[in-house]
């Protein structure tokens, strides 16, 4: 029996040690932790990655997934995030197809089940980490370490830092990456069992399969490729039993036997390292070629430390971020959906008290590394090495060491590193149990930790069920985060509470005076409230700070149009289109400007551009029909209306506009059919009934005209045109009655 496993004898009861029961317990506990999120909404990044991502819909060819980033933009675009995760997007697309649309329950259920499956798989992974890879002559592993693997798997399954990955649908990238990462690691472990039985060929097969699974993990999320580095460390330090302590001692004593160190002369090890290196390099090269351009461009608010001029300031803050990540693993009570935009102020001098956190982190890490590399106990050396390997290696892509990342702290990137944390924590409990007589107290502490973590998972899963709860939960954790206030304001604005939204948008701008998106949204609300001067000032400042902000240029144009500053408005619209060439809404607003200026040809051209870029742009089609109708071009208006209805056959406003044109062209029967169809789709539109009444009035169907005039006036008693027409009809009916008499 493995040493750590024996030390945990008083913590884990033997009655649940059989593998099936252990996995069943872990699976059920993992489901309990996050089941509350199953009926949650699409929140935060889900909107962009799923709801607004055209790659999920059948109209987008499957082949496009291999040329687009995670958010549906072309990888070759300068605005692309460069996050290449086609397999994750493919699972979203399958979810969309099976659910029959954007129904979040199916998406959430897949995430919950994935975490459950990964937690069950962790029992086997931890069994290898704690028990090693010693086999009997029959090919069975000697030490399964059932107690240690069960405890570590439970600690992993209930860790609250996983909530973002499980309860947020976009976290599926991390879940899928972790799944194939672990399968790759287990496949690599399989190589050593098979090489003992069947020789080098079988071993090569498993190593190649491990590389393939690592590539699959990377296609789910970028950090998946780090499994190849972990496999190499595992091979050299654990399988090859390379002892740093032994090498150091030989170097110090100038021992000539150093040249004959078995690990360095092991042909099988060197062959496997060559396979891992060439495989990893090939995968990274292909990934680089597909990406097409350099790394994504992030702004200072995304990762302020990476923009610091001083190397010392950058180094201190990066290390402080590492300590915060470590703290989230140790004490996952303060969790936040976003840690950027002032949430963590920069450390600008070594006199900042937060430097203590750096010292504490490196004191612990150096102590663990020394024990992992230099301990004479091979069992202890293996566990600490693999624990640190799982903790550090998957975290490297998020460390800012190789390239700038677009966040300060992100709970989702701790999903895989938490495996290493669980190894170290379980090893610590085993060591405590070995060196103390109060074993029941340690068992009680373990149970309390598990219970508190389960409770925190349940609470946090509830917070991820809706954007309002998620955003408000962040206020107590990151009150200085401008993005938190921005998102609360946006959520309130979407619900129609503009007054409260303005308050939060103003606070976001106060916390970050360069927050152009908050300025843009605040300017939009002020525009709707007819506070045009302040709206113009905010939007002008936004485009001054970010000159290529197309949406702000368009909104500035709308405000300037309302202020009758037509030349400035036109210039703003043109600038927006310059920065975003495919901008149908901007063409639509430009068309409205031209219509106000009686530049009818220019207006029609602008609206036509809008419909070319977005064939379902109902407003642009409608305005074309109405303008052609008002200018007497009935034949052209009819042609445009028919073209529009072919593209958007269920749009009742288009039916209404075309029906008006057909009525004026005396095509009464067809006009009547369209009016009735529009009314069926929108029965409470007073104008629909009023214009149908006018049609009947012209057509001579006076009783039907009277009926629809009355319905229209019931729906809108203030409609003066309908009142006047109804009065004319009544007088005509009275004349008819007198004539009949």
Automatic annotation (TrEMBL):
Q: Supply the SMART domains for this chain.
A: TPR
Pfam families attached to this UniProt entry: TMTC_DUF1736, TPR_16, TPR_17, TPR_8
Mind listing the UniProt keywords for this protein, alphabetically? Endoplasmic reticulum, Membrane, Repeat, TPR repeat, Transferase, Transmembrane, Transmembrane helix
Q: Where is the DUF1736 domain?
A: 294-366
The TPR repeat ranges on this chain: 482-515, 516-549, 550-583, 584-617, 686-719
In terms of SUPFAM superfamilies, this protein maps to:
TPR-like
Q: Where are the transmembrane segments?
A: 20-38, 112-132, 169-188, 200-219, 225-248, 269-288, 355-374, 386-407, 413-432, 441-462
Q: Where in the cell is it found?
A: Endoplasmic reticulum; Membrane
Instruction: Output this protein's name.
Output: dolichyl-phosphate-mannose--protein mannosyltransferase
């Amino acid at each position: 029996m493995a040493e750590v496993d024996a030390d945990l004898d008083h913590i884990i009861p033997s009655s649940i040690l059989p593998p099936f029961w252990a996995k069943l317990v872990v699976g059920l506990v993992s489901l309990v932790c996050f089941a509350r999120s199953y009926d949650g909404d699409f929140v935060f990044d889900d909107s962009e990655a799923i709801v607004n991502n055209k790659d999920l819909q059948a109209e987008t060819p499957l082949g496009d997934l291999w040329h687009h980033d995670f958010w549906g933009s072309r990888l070759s675009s300068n605005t692309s995030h460069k996050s290449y995760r086609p397999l994750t997007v493919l699972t979203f697309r399958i979810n969309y197809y099976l659910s029959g649309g954007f129904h979040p329950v199916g998406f959430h259920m897949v995430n919950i089940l994935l975490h459950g499956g990964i937690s069950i798989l962790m029992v086997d992974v931890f069994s290898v980490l704690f028990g090693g890879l010693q086999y009997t002559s029959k090919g069975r592993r000697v030490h399964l370490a059932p107690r240690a693997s069960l405890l570590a798997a439970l600690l992993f399954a209930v860790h609250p830092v996983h909530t973002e990955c499980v309860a947020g649908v976009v976290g599926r990238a991390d879940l899928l990456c972790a799944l194939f990462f672990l399968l790759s690691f287990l496949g690599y472990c399989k190589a050593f069992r098979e090489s003992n039985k069947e020789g080098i060929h079988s071993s090569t097969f498993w190593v190649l399969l491990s590389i393939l699974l690592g590539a699959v993990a990377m296609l789910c999320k970028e950090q998946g490729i780090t499994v190849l580095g972990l496999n190499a460390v595992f091979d050299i330090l654990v399988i090859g039993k390379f002892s740093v302590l032994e090498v150091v001692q030989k170097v110090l004593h100038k021992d000539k036997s150093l040249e004959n160190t078995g690990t360095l002369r092991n042909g099988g090890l060197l062959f496997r390292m060559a396979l891992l290196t060439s495989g990893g390099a090939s995968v990274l090269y292909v990934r680089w070629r597909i990406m097409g351009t350099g790394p994504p461009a992030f702004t200072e608010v995304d990762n302020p430390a990476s923009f610091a001029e001083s190397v010392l300031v950058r180094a201190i803050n990066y290390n402080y971020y590492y300590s915060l990540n470590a703290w989230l693993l140790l004490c996952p009570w303060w969790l936040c959906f976003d840690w950027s935009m002032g949430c963590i102020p920069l450390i600008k001098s070594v006199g900042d008290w937060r430097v203590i956190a750096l010292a504490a982190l490196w004191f612990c890490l150096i102590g663990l590394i020394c024990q992992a590399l230099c301990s004479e106990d091979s069992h202890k050396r293996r566990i600490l090495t693999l624990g640190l390997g799982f903790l550090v290696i998957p975290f490297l892509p998020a460390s800012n060491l190789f390239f700038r990342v677009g966040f300060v702290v992100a709970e989702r990137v701790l999903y895989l590193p938490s495996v290493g944390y669980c190894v170290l924590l379980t090893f610590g409990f085993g060591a405590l149990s070995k060196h103390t007589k109060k074993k029941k107290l340690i068992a009680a502490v373990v149970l309390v930790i598990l219970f508190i973590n389960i409770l925190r998972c349940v609470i946090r899963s509830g917070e991820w069920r809706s954007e309002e709860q998620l955003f408000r939960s962040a206020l107590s954790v990151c009150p200085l985060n401008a993005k938190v206030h921005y998102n609360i304001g946006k959520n309130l604005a979407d619900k129609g509470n503009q007054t409260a939204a303005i308050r939060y948008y103003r606070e976001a701008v106060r916390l970050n005076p360069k927050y152009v998106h908050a300025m843009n949204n605040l300017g939009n609300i002020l525009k709707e409230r007819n506070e045009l001067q302040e709206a113009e000032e905010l939007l002008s400042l936004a485009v001054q700070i970010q000159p290529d902000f197309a949406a702000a240029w368009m909104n500035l144009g709308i405000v300037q149009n309302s202020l009758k500053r037509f030349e400035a408005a036109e210039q703003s619209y043109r600038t927006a289109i310059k920065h975003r060439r495919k901008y149908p809404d901007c063409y639509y607003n430009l068309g409205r400007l031209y219509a106000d200026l009686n530049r009818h040809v220019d207006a029609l051209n602008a609206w036509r551009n809008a419909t070319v870029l977005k064939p379902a742009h109902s407003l642009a089609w409608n305005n074309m029909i109405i303008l052609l109708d008002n200018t007497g071009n009935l034949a052209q208006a009819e042609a445009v209306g028919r073209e529009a209805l072919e593209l958007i056959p269920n749009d009742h406003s288009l039916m209404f506009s075309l029906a008006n044109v057909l009525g004026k062209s005396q095509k009464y029967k067809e006009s009547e059919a369209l009016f009735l169809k529009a009314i069926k789709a929108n029965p409470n539109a007073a104008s629909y009934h009023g214009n149908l009444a006018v049609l009947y009035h012209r057509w001579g169907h006076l009783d039907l005209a009277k009926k629809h005039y009355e319905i229209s006036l019931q729906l809108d008693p203030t409609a003066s045109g309908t009142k006047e027409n109804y009065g004319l009809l009544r007088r005509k009916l009275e004349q008819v009655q007198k004539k009949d008499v």
